[in-house]
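Per your request, structure below.
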């Protein structure tokens, strides 16, 4: 008998690999935290599988998610990104990646790392939820509302509460694997 997984990943190999290897595993590395922030902001209004299918293209287009480089993107670089069919060519989202890279580094200066800042909202430890199915998972929570408001106050764009809750799930700040999923106990 195969492994029991969260129903949302279905049987698409890319989705299954993402579910089994990444989603919900705690991420404390600033570079990876920034990557997920960019991907989640581009995902707003789209399906996650769309982003996963374009992830390598994003990685190439955005200099391997190097926030120090992204923060200095010129108008010419932004214009070239808007011509790149391999990514989501939304001008507001592309511009927000540059803006968010800048403010990401501001948070690093203030807190020592983005990881210390973001994980401080959960006292450094994942919140382990007890949902039976995907239908029980919320789209946002009072905590994601709080984080979203704080990020917006600091100048971040495309960081609404729903985007931030998805970010919290992806980076393991919350464990929203279904209780019957083999990853529930692992993460």
């Amino acid at each position: 008998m195969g492994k029991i997984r969260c129903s949302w990943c279905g049987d698409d190999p890319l989705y299954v690999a993402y579910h089994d290897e990444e989603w919900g595993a705690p991420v404390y590395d600033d570079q990876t935290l920034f990557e997920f922030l960019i991907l989640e902001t581009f995902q707003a209004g789209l399906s996650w599988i769309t982003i996963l299918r374009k992830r390598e293209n994003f990685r190439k287009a955005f200099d391997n998610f190097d926030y120090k480089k992204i923060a200095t993107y010129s108008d010419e670089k932004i214009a070239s990104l808007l011509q790149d069919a391999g990514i989501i060519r939304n001008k507001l989202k592309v511009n927000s990646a540059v803006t968010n890279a800048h403010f990401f580094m501001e948070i690093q200066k203030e807190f020592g790392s983005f990881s210390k800042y973001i994980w401080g909202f959960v006292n450094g430890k994942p919140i382990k939820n007890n949902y039976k199915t995907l239908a029980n998972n919320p789209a946002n929570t009072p905590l994601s509302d709080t984080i979203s408001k704080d990020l917006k106050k600091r100048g971040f764009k495309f960081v609404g509460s729903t985007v931030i809750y998805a970010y919290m799930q992806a980076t393991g700040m919350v464990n929203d694997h279904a209780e019957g999923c083999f990853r529930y106990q692992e993460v």
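The beta strands are 127-128, 174-175.

Regards,
D.
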